[in-house]
Specification:
The protein is mostly helical and 307 residues long. It is 66% helix and 0% strand. The protein contains 15 helices and no strands. The protein is elongated.
């Protein structure tokens, strides 16, 4: 007579059957994925036509970003290569981004590289498992892709301000801060992030004050001097707005003290002083010329003497 099956044995058998079925399901999924994702090679149009069918949201996000909007400047092949093999790993590493965004001395790259995040990544990146998704603090410190393509987000513009940093757009500020918070909260506490955002906005406000003071000064001087005479001051202002104001923003965004201060706020102070110095020199020259004209033969001063 067969030995009765105990309740524990019955439960174990049931679990084993479920596990076997689940394993067969996963194997089938892997076979299906392998069958629908050949190694390549591919061009960008092939990538888009396929992913529009299987993951259209990904393509839509890329097209909404600065990478893919209007005329694409960074396409699938540029970031992932022309094969599925190692495609994710390639796109997750900073070297892929740096190839397009300039060398290590270019401010966008250098401001991150000189931050604590950037230094840790430089020291440890060879030991990391780059097959891990860009989420849930899978990396000890975030690189370019972790912040700008978090959880597979392909709209890299979501965490970046517009180019006009003098314009204070509250809607844009909230949108960028919300997107950034979703990334940073993987590692940092909400209160800490709020303080960082508040401090960053104050830093930008101070930087804008300096730029606007220089702008107002130049507008006033245009009533007294020609564009040619103001050329040196105008060029200094252009550098102030396009380089040093941006450096402050990069220092805030990448949490780089060097760019918040050394390459940012003090550089703006220097710009403002140079602009004021150039204008003071114009005033001095104009005053000296007027005095010389007054004292020259036939001038106002000479006429006064002959009375």
């Amino acid at each position: 007579m067969p030995k009765p099956v105990t309740r524990d044995e019955e439960r174990g058998t049931r679990i084993l059957c479920i596990a076997s079925v689940w394993g067969l399901f996963l194997t089938a999924c892997n076979i299906t994925v392998a069958a629908t994702a050949p190694d390549g090679s591919f061009d960008n149009s092939s990538c888009i036509s396929c992913h529009e069918k299987h993951d259209n949201e990904l393509v839509r996000a890329w097209r909404a970003s600065v990478h893919g909007k209007d005329k694409p400047v960074a396409d699938c092949v540029a970031c992932h290569g022309d094969s599925h093999k190692g495609a994710a790993v390639k796109a997750r590493q900073d070297e892929t981004c740096i190839d397009c965004h300039g060398d290590v001395r270019e401010p966008t790259v250098h401001s991150y590289a000189s931050s604590k995040h950037g230094l840790i990544l430089k020291l440890e990146k060879k030991e990391w498992d780059w097959t891990q998704p860009l989420a849930q603090a899978n990396y000890r410190t975030p690189g370019c892709a972790y912040c700008h393509m978090h959880s597979g987000e392909h709209n890299v513009s979501a965490t970046v301000r517009g180019t006009d940093l003098l314009r204070e757009n509250s809607k844009e500020i909230k949108s960028v801060q919300d997107a950034t918070r979703r990334v940073c909260q993987d590692c940092h506490a909400p209160r800490y992030l709020s303080r960082l955002f508040e401090n960053g906005e104050r830093m930008l406000a101070i930087a804008r004050m300096k730029v606007r003071e220089a702008k107002d000064l130049l507008l006033q001087m245009r009533e007294q001097y020609t564009l040619e005479e103001l050329d040196a001051a105008a060029k200094q202002y252009e550098k102030m707005q396009s380089v040093h104001l941006k450096n402050v923003y990069l220092g805030i965004a990448h949490q780089s003290p060097d760019y918040q201060w050394w390459y940012g706020q003090p550089a703006l102070d220097g710009d403002l002083l140079r602009i004021k110095g150039a204008i003071s020199e114009l005033i001095r020259i104009k005053s000296a010329n007027e005095k010389q004209k007054a004292c020259s033969p036939g001038g106002v001063g000479d006429k006064e003497k002959t009375k």
